[in-house]
Amino acid sequence: MAKVYNWQIGREMSYWYPEARPERQFAAVFDVNKCIACQTCTLACKTTWTSGRGQEYMLWNNVETKPYGFYPLAWDVNVLQALGPQRWESGRYDGRTIFEAARPGERALGWRPTELDYAHPNVGEDDCHGEVEKGAAFGGQHLLWFFYLARICNHCTYPACLASCPRGSIYKRPEDGIVLLDQGRCRGYQECVKACPYKKVFFNPLTGVSEKCIACFPKIEQGLQPQCFANCIGKIRLAGWLSTPDKADPANPLDYLVHVRKVAKPLMPQLGLEPNVYYIPPLHAPPGFLEQMFGPGVEEALATYRTADDDLAGLLGLFGSTERVVPRWRREGDWILGLEEGGAEIVRVPLREPVHIRAGLDPRFGIQRTNCP
Ligand code: SF4
Ligand code: SF4
């Protein structure tokens, strides 16, 4: 095992291969507060990539209701339980990662879902945590909660799928950090399915090889955001490139959200994979649950989000405004500009939605408008 540095857990950790960061890392921010669980992303992916035989059960993108939704069943509960105590001390993770907790003969602490675990992708949908007393009225404070968690492959910096493959079939592209699986090399051992804690590799029983999310790399190569991003109804997603914290550039929208304002957090950083999809946590769920899911700093992130200034609020308005990947941004007065690397403008969005007030009487036709007071 090599020693590598994982900035999300604030320390060195053991990994199967030495540290080899790509030239630039594909990454994303999802704003959980805006997701409506319409599953348009799921279908956009499904119809693009997994509509073939043997792929029926595969959801490279899925959206589950937390705390009781999972795909596959109990993916997070199983890994957290197997891992044991997870302690953080001043931003440093003192517990074991799944690489450090691997059983003898394993490269990462894993488990393999059964067919039944994949049978109910909508289990727990819209189930609240807690119960409403019969006849209880809303008292101004939401005591019950749930939220929607959209998930894709995290194109991890230290992928467990890659580490666990005895055939060396999984690789991380040096040009963009996208994690791909060479189906020609794969022999269907399913070690990757077992090792990925997020359960984002799927075995195709008809072809006998595994498959996974490819971050729509043919689109990325053309400077376009993946299908699940471009089709997102809630405009919760922004794809781009993420630097390490020491090279954070405030003009890069992802660096700004993750490193500068620290409003977006990784999914279960304690597992040790340095996942590259970041989440703006939901505002109304209990902090303890959110810390387990997104690591330390959640309350600070939510405080920043709640009191967003014009820069932050404006940048959030760039989400879903264009199909192009926006590598740079800046605010110009009441406009937020999405820019190419060289500075050319891709898109501009207003800081505030314009409000049009129509007079009750239409002076042109001399008639009263029925939709005005
Ligand atoms: Fe591999 Fe899973 Fe990480 Fe994707 S999320 S790169 S499948 S370990
Ligand atoms: Fe959520 Fe967007 Fe997917 Fe709809 S398309 S479920 S809003 S992530």
Task: Please characterize this protein's 3D structure.
With 373 residues, the chain is α+β, with helices and mostly antiparallel strands. The mean pLDDT is 96. It has two domains: 266 residues, Alpha-Beta Plaits, CATH 3.30.70.20; 65 residues, no CATH class. Helices cover 19% and strands 21% of the residues. Bound molecules: iron/sulfur cluster (2 copies). The site of one iron/sulfur cluster has 14 residues, from helix 3. The site of one iron/sulfur cluster has 14 residues, from helix 1 and strand 7.
Classify the helix fraction into a percent range. Answer: 10-25%
SS content category: alpha+beta
Q: Are there runs of 5+ residues with pLDDT below 50, and where?
A: none
Distance between the termini: 71 Å
> Helical element count?
10
Kindly give the count of domains: 2
Rg of Cα set = 22 Å
Give average pLDDT, whole number.
Answer: 96
CATH class of the largest domain reads: Alpha Beta
Q: What would you call the shape? A: globular
- Largest sheet descriptor: 4 strands, mixed
